[in-house]
Amino acid sequence: MFVRRSAVALAALIGSASTVLVTLCAAPAGAHGAPTDPGSRAVACGPRGGQAQSAACAAAVRAGGSTAFEKWDNLRVAGVAGRDRQMIPDGQLCSAGIALYKGLDLARDDWPATALKAGARFSLTYASTIPHRGTFRVYLTKEGYDPGAPLTWDDLEREPVASVTDPELRDGAYRIRGTLPGGREGRHLLYTVWQNTDTPDTYYSCSDIVLSPARPAAAARVPASPAPSASPPVPPSASPPASPSASPPASSPATPPGSAPAADPARANATSPTASAADADGLSIPVVAGVAALALASVAGGAYALRRRR
Predict the structure, then answer these.
(1) Which fold has domain 30-212?
(2) 8 Å CB contact between 126 and 177
(3) Cβ(272)–Cβ(278) under 8 Å?
(4) Contact indicator for 276, 238 with CB cutoff of 8 Å
(5) Could you tell me the mean pLDDT of each successive run of 10 residues in the chain, 310 residues long?
């Protein structure tokens, strides 16, 4: 009788253990993760970050204990379902209102930070041990953000600087890419929200950054146009001498040798592209040619008379 009762009890115990085991195996595994670059506060002060000895991390441990940094990848809240602003109180965004992580909410300007460029593209690496479906949203603090004051929802821009749904988990991490706005400088904060769609959990994290102005684009160098080469002056084309046989027009009286021609107002005001250097002195080419012809004729006449005398 005793043996039979023992066997029944053992069978019941085995059955209960089997039921518990099946239940555990069938339950969905919780997603775990956090940003590692730029690192979240929990990562920076935890075993992976190497900043545990910093003043901010030491103060956070004093405020909430060291367990928060040992569980750097487990900062999650169930049942939020997109109601982040209603569920997570102002001043507790970095801890998501979880008492274990309250040290992360300390308002300080010396948290370990990552340097980034304003106005440039960036990639946030989010380490995760279990792949899950869901949406990542990364928000940047507004211009004028004060790291010495508790973080509120109004400190964040309404639109995320990066957002992606169901990214691929590669090498144990998700990569979320986005673009930072320009015109920001100094201490800021990236607030990452990972809302799972295959579990009821939403993850929250604060990553401190220091923004420096983007380097201005170099002005395009326009090569100077070469100076135009000086062209040699084009000699004026000489007008053909007046033909000896050509008679002056009836309306133009003959000009006696040695006297200056009458001034022609229309001609004096006109500028000819073929004017010679003689024009600049007030003498026209035909007059010069006529004087030269008379001089030659006089020389020839003198020579002829001399020959006749001989």
Answers:
(1) Coagulation Factor XIII; Chain A, domain 1 (2.70.50)
(2) no
(3) no
(4) yes
(5) 46 43 37 92 94 96 94 96 97 97 97 97 94 96 97 98 97 97 96 96 98 68 50 48 43 43 42 39 44 51 48
